[in-house]
Amino acid sequence: MTILNENAPDAENAGGSVWFRIALIAVACAVAAFIPGLLPNLFYVHIVNLTLLSGIFALSLWVIYSVGQLSLCHAAFAGLGAYISAIISMRLNIPPALSLVLSTLATAALAAALGAVILRLRGVYFVLVTFLFGQMFTLLALNWAGMTNGANGLIGIKAVTLFGISFGPRPMFFYLAFAMFLMVLVFVWALNRSTFGRAFNSIEQNINLAETCGIDTARYQVIAFAIGSGIAGLGGALMAHYIRFISPDTFTFHNSVAYITMLVVGGRSLFWGAVLGAAFLTPLPEFLRDFEGLQHIIYGAIMIVVLRVMPGGLISLPRTLARIGGAK
User: Fold this and answer.
1) Is the pLDDT confidence value at 57 over 90?
2) Whole-structure pTM over 0.85, yes or no?
């Protein structure tokens, strides 16, 4: 079935491509080891940490988008992972390193159960139902005060400790966030190259044709939804143990829109676009703080210019520059 093999890697180049990526990862790790020491102060370390977490959220949303769906409750799953990890580490005294794993699996399982129901819907109906679920999560976090502490939120969440090393300080958390981001990036890359990834791609391109070719589209969409939401839960849990405080306002509908914006601005065609979008948009508001009163206007104008010049997102920049150079 050609629909499944359209994006398959060329056999002769596959080995070289893998080794190139391994070398690239090794170089990235070597450079990352020095980043906290090279940055001028802890504020910039904090911005880098938030950018890495945003990269995880954007990548997780890309997994769901890869089957042609767009979720407006992505922040709800991030918040779900955050609350589960925080609650079981604080109240059950489970080590945060283990609570990260448990919250990721629990979020993925809940997403699979929800996806089995709502993924029967398509288009705008699916988007509206995900929006409703996001609002339900916020209301639950507000009103289940006995578990979530309501509007006051959870304070004093434990920092992640592994092998006796605390990742609470910002420079130390950078290494944890970078490791988790790299793990998610490699996982999404491997998933995209697998049979699952090719099936996801065929569903996103033409779901009716994919069904005609015998692909169980409902099953694959539930799998993608569970994986993407589970990764979002991991990112939310990391955020909780980093900030060490969460409330219903930490993960809202506006955060879901922000993740979608990262995906669109970076470029939806490849998962690298999600990374570029997070790297571009997360630090941008901080750099615009000096423009009081004009910050949101400038932010919006920059996004409009980017999408106008590069409809395919930042990932299409080389192609856009080549087209401009050719025109000259």
Assistant:
1) yes
2) yes
